[in-house]
Amino acid sequence: MSDTILTLRNATKLYAGVPAIENVDFELRRGEIHALVGENGAGKSTLTKVMAGVVTLTSGTMQVNGVDVAPRTPLEARHLGIAMVFQENSLVPTMTVAQNLFLGQEHFYNRLRGIYIAAQQFLQSLNFDVTPTATVGLLGAAKKQMVEIARAVLHEAKVIIFDEPTATLTPEEKKYFFDLVRDLKRRGVSIVFISHALEEALILADRITILRDGKHVVTDDASKFDRARIVQAMVGRDLSNTLYGTRKTTVRTAGARVLTVQNLKMAPMVKNNSLSVFAGQITGVFGLVGAGRTETFKVVAGVLKRDFFHGGEVILHDKPVRYRVPAPAVRAGIAYVTEDRKVEGFFETMSVARNIYLGLLAKVPGGRFFLSRREAEKIGNSWVEKLRVRSTGNDMKVVELSGGNQQKVVIAKSLVQNPDLIIFDEPTRGVDVGAIVEIHELIQRLADEGKAVVVISSYLPEIMALSDRILVSRGGKVVEEFSALEATEEKIMYAAVH
Amino acid sequence: MISALKTFTDRFLGRGEATITVPSFDGALKPNQILEGAETVGQFDAPEDLATDGQTLYIADGAAILRLDGVATAEVRRFDRAVTALCCLPDGGIAVALDGREVQVFATPSALSAKATLSDPSIHAINALSAGPGGTLVATDGSAAHPYRQWAYDLMERGRTGRVLSLDIASGSIRTVAADLNYAFGVCAAGDTLFVSESWKHRIVAITPNRDRRTVLDNLPVYPSRLSKASSGGFWLTAFAARTQLVEFVLRENAYRRRMMNEIDPEYWIAPKLKSGQSFLEPMQGAHIKTMGVVKPWAPPRSYGLVIRLNDSGVPIYAVHSRVDGANHGVVAAVEMDGSLFAVAKGPGRLLRAPLTMIEQGLRA
Lengths: 498, 365
Fold this sequence. Notes:
Chain A has a six-stranded mixed beta sheet, with helices on both faces. In chain A, helix 12 crosses helix 13 (373-386) and helix 12 packs parallel to helix 14. Chain A starts with a strand and ends with a helix. Chain A is built from 17 helices and 20 strands. Chain A is 34% helix and 25% strand. In chain A, a hairpin with a 2-residue loop joins strand 14 (313-316) and strand 15. Chain A folds into three domains: 4-235, 3-Layer(aba) Sandwich (Rossmann fold), CATH 3.40.50; 244-333 and 419-498, P-loop containing nucleotide triphosphate hydrolases (Rossmann fold, 3-Layer(aba) Sandwich), CATH 3.40.50; 345-417, no CATH class. Chain B is mainly β. Chain B has one domain (23-364): TolB, C-terminal domain (Neuraminidase), CATH 2.120.10. Chain B has five helices and 26 strands. Chain B has a four-stranded antiparallel beta sheet with strand order 1-26-25-24. In chain B, strands 2-3-4-5 form a four-stranded antiparallel beta sheet, with no helix packed on it. Chain B is globular. Chains A and B meet through strand 11, strand 12 and strand 20 of A and loops of B.
């Protein structure tokens, strides 16, 4: 039997005549962990989608165990032993965890209790703390990711493709995940692993393939790479010092108090949370998954409602406010850039320009009866230029953009509202290093312009690189505040876990 | 009728006036451990107040007034009652409040006898003195119902009988400048205007010569107490305890509070304290305070140490803290002298000294 389980030769995929990948050669060995690295739009997702049967090649060949194949659906790929865990999860939100796990494996007669027990045992064997009877739609992003991973493992795939698997995981959960991947490798499963966290690729992978602009750049043993070489190969320029590289030596002074949250409660996630946000500063909010950060700011933005009884207070510009829906919050100058961009961030089948225009319309009381296509395009184009969104045309649908460019659209959709308070929830999750730098520059610029900026992130280097003040959240409330000058990773983590 | 209905629904839903919220320590009040790390100059039995004439620091300790000589202290004079407030006057004299009921003024700290004694049956709890405009002396009388040492009773009864008094040393007359304050505890004159701490309202008010009141600083997360002038303008404001949601809740539950006051030793009331962690009978213990034997600095405070630096307008610039895991709690007095901040932490009975340069360095770190 050959050492290679999956091979792609001269793989090319065109979207509307534009190549997403072009003449890419890729080889996956049996029982190896192969990291696929590249900027947004480099073609990583397209390449893996070809392997998983989500899209078919325009030209080129694919072989599994030396046999030519061309899977046209994920089901066909699964029959070939290939499963994919998607970057933006593909679970059915109205079904329970157990039902999602066994989706597609239903029998004529299904006994729910049976699948719950089986799911419980299986999830426990993976050390995943997820309740099988929980509805997936109510789970946080990290837990959804766990269910995705569990589903791929359950299908006993010989090749598992992970697209940004650790983006939503906390450091502790990442450790579990790494152990799981190594365990899969021991069992002979081959892993294709896409990650923007280059350290993860260096730690976990046996070999690394780097793509740039849809073309294969290099494949080599992970031991022969370091961070600088990867970044150089990915972007063709040295970014290693600008990305999380330097420690802050100065912080912006606080302007006026824009937002005060006092003893906010939203059971069971937010418990007595109190914090303030000041103009002209970046307030970083760090915490592990379940710390109630997202929920707190969703209450502020009117996406979620606080407790009806003794739910605390939200004070915007010294005035108590309570938004039951997002529209009045948007009109009051609050913009919330969601962590779950695919579900909450944009209308994926609409064009980039229209999505951005919708952001503007959200600020108009009562909406508009007639919409101007020309105005939409004008506004859309100006923001596409400002944020350097890479698309092939104005009518390109957002779903066709890469993760980083999708994120830029979500940000543009909020900034077009000219808000005073901008809340970025995991702004660079699933975004490549090139786009991370651009998004970080944008966030810094907003604070320099005097806007009150909140950055919620689970990634410590990001929090430390961006924030002027760092709030640490644990168990549903902010427990500690650090100036960026005094903060260390140890201090922040201590507060986050104790 | 509508107002009564609104009050009822607010209480039921926890909204409006009935919202039980406590502001967080952030902005200028961002926590640090500067006060906890301050040098302990001396340990005293019952330190209460500080006063300085610019060269010498005087400490009110129980019934005595002490003078700080370097690191040693010397007794200046002793009274038959506890000293509840102390202040140096511009003419070199010193004013002393005794048991909160009487004020004696001495021409010099070591003068044999008082040059003026001011008292009135209505005075119950004088807790702060300050040189006022026009050669007068101003004082805060915390409560008309309880003596100074029983301040917790006044809080639990939601006392609103505090006053600001103007004492004319020459004539011995006493004039009420402001009344019906929610525990007046600390006063400092800035020109003709008096800045007054109103502890139970968690605010500082400015009282003009024509007795107009203006809120300078409110919604503090602490119980403010004595004020003193800072050398470079502005004030030092002490806070003897920090607010917690639990105490705020108890303050809204009248029946519970009455029963607690009748049946429980005041030492173990759900009320702010000047020191904590002394007994297992204390409320507010458990995992939210302590994990694996380590007290969390960010836990809800039963006692706390804080001095806030205010600018001329009463806006906080920064604060020095002794957090929940610290010991320098119950700070009731602070004065600036020789480039250092001196503070009395009444909880552990300490006189603390923090050089201003050290504070600046600590805040920069």
